[in-house]
Amino acid sequence: MEKAKDLLILKSAENIINWDMETMMPPKAIKLRSQQLSLISRIKHKMSTDQEIGILTGKIMQHPEYDRLSEIQKRNTYLVKKDYDEQTKLPEDLVAETAKQRATTVDAWKKAKATRDFPMFRPELQKLFELRKKAAQILMEVKETATPYDALIDIYEPKMTANAVTKVFDELRRGLVSILRKCETAPKQPNVRILERKIPIDVQRQIAKALAEAVEYDVKSENAGGRIDETEHPFTSGYYEDVRITTHYYEDNFASSIFSVLHEAGHALYEQNLKAEWMYQPIGTDCSHGFHESQSRLMENIIGRSRDFWVYFLPKLKEIAGKTLADVELEPFVQAINHVKPSKVRVEADEVTYGLHIVIRFDIERDLFAEKIMIKELPEVWNEKYNEYLDVKIENDSEGVMQDTHWASGSYGYFPSYALGNIYSGQILGAMEKDLPHWRKHLSKGNFKDVKQWLIENIHSHGNLYDPADLIKRITGKKLHIKPYLDYLCNKYSKLYGF
Q1: What tens digit of pLDDT does each residue of 422-432 get?
Q2: How far is CA 327 from the centre of its chain?
Q3: Does residue 264 carry a catalytic annotation?
Q4: Which residues of 199-230 are buried (b: 16+ CB within 10 A; e: fewer)?
């Protein structure tokens, strides 16, 4: 546990350096930053592959009294051994080179996105992809997965496979398209012009802080463990007592920052409310990226786009925004923020079409690692799938294949967790409503404490004690299945759209 603690502290320092690279770092510093991250990766790899860890875990697991260990001790040992077995297979040079290339590729992505120039980005992306592919092939053996891509998915969603995701996503796609078509042809259509009113950036910063306060993400008190900063692509970074979120403000689209703040606050609350006594232990981390996403999507959509939340928060929003939103009424506003319309950009997608953006990315990643498509073909494949799945035409690669930072960061296998998180959130909602039948009424009065406490007790406090398949069954009594999520969407949008 002492070795595990040192490694977790180092990772938390690496998180802050990555956070700084996205928020505060001057442009000229990228070369130095890539070397800093490369060195940290080497140190982290040396610590992870310390031979003494292998000796200790071996002695523990082969000890005649191993069965007398607690569930927590056994899980900690399992997680340490899993990481050790995987990291010892990865050459140190590959780890360091990947970290260095990742920083370079992200920098190239930022410049290429700003100038809509995919060819500028492609060489660095190709280098990073080859490095991740090499790692995937190595990890495939130690993780005992059927394909290299499965090995990458396992990093983010343990024991999940591409075949299982494909099956779930095929059902998800059919369900979402059905709801989308009903919304498009429904008699009631929202007026979204309310959301086009210009709100100054400094006012939006005040709104962001008020939202954080409403969901008990502390960024203001003397004991605050959070902060809100500004980046191109919103994200959350941190560990227990220092968990930071970012957002992006658009003067003519104030709703964008509202929902990115709520989304990232959901992530932050998960990190901050892991069991305190498990800090510095492997079990004192999140269950999976899918479960992390379930918390952010639940906060952003199930809570943040609900009528109940805005019964409470709309008066506060109007007070901060002043005369710009003075005439806005509750029902039209709620309909506007739940407007369903196919779009080009994932982070701006509505609740119904969002999953289709993820299915597209998953299909591309799966085919990329199966060598059915190549890096140079990404823009063309991307544009074709957006036309097929969402019936939208991509005008340039910045609103197309370069809109996300994930591939520039080498995070292949990450995207499926977004849609899995949505599916988890539907099941979690069903379980929560059984225990808290009046949660919506309480929310409309500004009481978020009951919901927060339920999430802490049923999800956050379990940390990484269980694999995701086991945790969802523990919470809901059932394995991962899509029906509760699709039922939630159908019920919500049939009321909003009148179908």
Answers
A1: 999 999 999 99
A2: 35
A3: yes
A4: beeebbbebbbebbebbebebeeeeebbbbbe
Residue 219's pLDDT is what?
98
DSSP one-letter string for 229-290:
EE-SS--EEEETTEEEEEE---TT-HHHHHHHHHHHHHHHHHHHTS-GGGTTSTTSS-S-HH
**Predicted pLDDT at 347:** 85
With CA atoms as reference, report the closest residue to 459 among 450, 447, 472, 478.
472
User: One of 22, 86, 124, 264 is an active-site residue; which one?
Assistant: 264
DSSP 132-200: HHHHHHHHHHHHT-SSHHHHHHHHHSTT--HHHHHHHHHHHHHHHHHHHHHHHT-S----GGGGGS---
442-451 LR contacts (CB < 8 Å, sep 24+): 443/303, 443/306, 443/308, 443/309, 443/312, 444/307, 444/308, 444/309, 444/311, 444/312, 445/312, 446/214, 446/312, 448/214, 448/215, 448/216, 448/303, 449/216, 451/303
pLDDT value for 321: 98
The owner of tokens 């991740």 is: 132
148-170 residue pLDDT tens: 999 999 999 999 999 999 999 99
26 pLDDT higher than 90: yes
How many angstroms separate the CA atoms of 94 and 116, rounded?
A: 30
Q: What phi and psi, each to the nearest 5 degrees, are found at residue 161? A: -125, 160
Three-state SS for 98-110 is: HHHHHHHHHHHHH
Phi-psi bin for 195: left (phi > 0), alpha (psi -120 to 50), beta?
alpha
Query: Which pTM was predicted?
Result: 0.94
User: At residue 428, what is the residue type?
Assistant: I
Closest-CA residue to 425 (of 320, 290, 321, 322): 290
